[in-house]
User: Which sequence fits this backbone?
């Protein structure tokens, strides 16, 4: 399964993003998320992953950013000029980097804020039960103030809150950030289950390439605001050249700094 073999749900076409009318951040970024697929957007910190997600969700405008060239389509409809509220109505929900929970509200109150536009109480309760099914730890914490639970549990709340909006596409921004390895694995396992069992498509922006490529079918690698290569997840995860040059991993799985590998001469065949 790749981004080319299934019908596109989301298409980002050659977009350019500028902040404050002068700062060019994204340069001709194109990617596709297929219906029911999981796509990984990989790259170092500052590569442009979060900006790409915000361009899709409409949150870019809140940070004085603008899509100045290209376009973004969801189910064939242009959305790059729409407000965040309009984008959510299409079924696109972004889970922000940094686990933005309402600390003074309980876990359950946080989850219910994800359904604020919905009116069917019975359906909302059913979806709340689904969230608790995928995140049983939240069942034990539902009466706790969200500011007093662990970082991993806050990430679960953030994803669960997004699920309450019944998304067609979830934009996940660095869900592994600041979490212990066991919690990272748990979060990614649940993301994979949500995709398989609930049919939620996912665009996953991550620095942890190893974990992201385990749940994704297709991957894109960003560097300095550009997509430098893309391919099926298996190809990206197994090829030693790609791991060394673009993901900063040596053949024995050790992490190298991104700066250390950037000076290598790129092999143009991976960009063709």
Assistant:
């Amino acid at each position: 399964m790749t981004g080319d073999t299934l019908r596109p749900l989301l298409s980002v076409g050659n977009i350019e993003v500028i902040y404050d009318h002068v700062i060019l951040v994204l340069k001709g970024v194109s990617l596709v998320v297929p219906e029911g697929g999981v796509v990984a957007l990989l790259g170092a910190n500052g590569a442009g992953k979060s900006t790409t997600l915000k361009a899709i969700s409409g949150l870019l405008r809140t940070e004085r950013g603008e899509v100045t060239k290209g376009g973004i389509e969801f189910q064939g409809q242009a959305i790059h000029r729409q407000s965040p509220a309009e984008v959510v109505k299409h079924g696109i929900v972004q889970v922000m980097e940094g686990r933005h929970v309402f600390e003074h509200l309980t876990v359950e109150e946080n989850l219910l804020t994800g359904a604020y536009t919905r009116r069917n109480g019975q359906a909302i309760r059913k979806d709340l039960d689904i969230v608790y099914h995928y995140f049983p730890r939240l069942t034990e914490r539902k009466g706790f103030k969200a500011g007093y639970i662990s970082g991993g549990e806050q990430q679960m709340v953030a994803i669960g809150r997004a699920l309450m909006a019944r998304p067609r596409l979830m934009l996940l921004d660095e869900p592994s950030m600041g979490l212990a390895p066991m919690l990272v694995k748990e979060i990614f396992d649940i993301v994979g289950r949500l995709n398989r069992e609930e049919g939620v498509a996912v665009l996953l922006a991550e620095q942890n390439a190893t974990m992201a490529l385990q749940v994704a079918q297709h991957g894109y690698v960003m560097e300095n605001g550009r997509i430098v290569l893309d391919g099926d997840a298996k190809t990206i995860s197994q090829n030693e050249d790609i791991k060394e040059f673009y993901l900063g991993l040596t053949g024995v799985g050790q992490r190298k700094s991104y700066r250390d590998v950037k000076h290598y001469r790129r092999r143009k065949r991976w960009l063709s």
Remarks:
- The first helix runs from residue 49 to 57.
